Amino acid sequence: MVISLILLFISCFILSFYEERIIQRDRVILYILIGIGMILIAGMRAVGSTPDTDAYEMMYYGKSNVIVAAATEPSFNIISYVLHSMSLGINSLFFAYAIISVPIHLVAFWKLSKIPFVTLTIYVSYYYMMHEMVQIRAGVAAGLFLLSLYYYVEKKKKIALLFIFLGTFFHYSALVGLVMFLFKDKLPTWQKAILCAIIPIGLVVYFTRVDLSLLIPESLIGSKLALYREMRDKGVEEELAGWPLEINILIWMNFILFYASIFYSEFLMKHCKYVNIAIKLQAAGFIFLLYLNGVSQVLGNRINDYFSVANIILWTASVYAFTPRIVSKIISNAISTFRFATSALAYALSLWFL
Fold first, then answer.
1. Which of 35, 203, 247, 337 has the fewest CB atoms inside 10 Å of its own CB, making it the most exposed?
2. Model's pTM, two decimal places?
3. 301-321 residue pLDDT tens
């Protein structure tokens, strides 16, 4: 599997340098072939080869506890039932989710990006491993969220809303994507000032572990947050929370990208009209990550992961920040290579300590 992932990344890496020179028909064929490879890698992985596969095996065979079973989305139960009726094993579940998720992502990238192979390189460097290889339910929801972002900016808000609700069928957390409907694709100076303040204030809240959720009335979602507090107090969330912010270099890279995108937003919008919304969605992710740490690291990290798919747009748009284009692609792909190596190492260490 490791060799397959490396070959997949190298293929996207090389094609990203030549995609403008490839005729449209060949680009589509290569794009589809890459997608087939992504499906095969995600579907053929063995249980225990990536984080969460053991948990999904338990869920698939109905061996999870009552709480996990109750929190499982209907899509998982339906897919599992159909596969069970055909007497298929756990890998059929991985294939099923990959067959759903990968094409959704490919369609979204093709719509959102003028340089889809650069976008694929960015996606494979981290998000593919996180979603198609680990959080497979959230992966489908994230792909649908990217499609909703596209249609939202294109002023087709009913379609955007439909994709978000469809995402909740695969992962309940997708409902937070409705936040997008509060945003406009303009970024005036006063909004830039507010966005710039989110991270420094949030870091203070994060490291002091202030529980701001206590300000939320019980009649709203206070009771739900109380459950996460109970998980925190019992130490249940520690094994689920992922890597802490202090050593998560990928998030710190996203912080830098966030500020650079704000500073160059007017220029980047000339090349990619989805940038301003992507900036605001990433800001929403940072708010959950930093400001909810006091109540639940799991909740903050998972929702930030969901919103952070908007970063794929920002990383892609950053290619337009440098000239000549070959230099910008070298810089972008160097960052993607570092992110790929770091992500692979993180997953390897996760498996080691499981």
1. 247
2. 0.88
3. 888 889 999 999 999 999 998
